[in-house]
Amino acid sequence: NIGNGMGFEACWRYDAGMLLAEPMVSSWKARLALDFAFQDEKTVLAGRSHDGPLVVQKPLYPEGREVCHAIVVHPPGGIAGGDELSLRVKTGNGASTLLTTPGAAKWYRSAGPWAKQSVAFDVQGALEWLPQETIVFDGALADSAYDVDLGAQAGFIGWDIVCLGRTGSGAGPREAAVGAAPGPAQPARRATRSATARRPADAAAGRLTRETWLSH
Length: 216
What we know:
Number of helices: 1
Shape: elongated
Radius of gyration: 18 Å
Strand content: 35-45%
């Protein structure tokens, strides 16, 4: 809403903030939870809740009723120091869902606070997580974690594509941290991401009970 100045504030923060430490505005705290179910031969978005600027658009069915496509939208478009985003998705038995994003995510420079993103999937049916790439700018401090719980008959495919700066314009980062925020006596881990996938102990023989989803 440009009329009340909020739109200008958001633009200032996420444009100028790429080059300078973020302006003195409150951080974004956002949470989105989605629940997909298979009902009447169709995968539907059976439940949703959100708080803050993280939402989902209207479900689409380009592949037919069995597969629900949905776009997760973070209206500010970028994540700066102190921001915290949380995405929780559940797909029930028989449900098949594809989630994506409308554009690249951006981790902007921080003056000190870490930005945090937590993604958790509870998959009993099938889930495809295919977001656009993530661009990490110089000076970013990004704590990004994925957790995937797989049912015995679940299917999952996902990616996390990380681009270090805008290399096409020669704006690669000189220094940035992507991983788990350090504790009081723990140094920052450079260029790593935390992600695991798990199946229950009673899953079919030959399936992994724990595996690394994303490598360093």
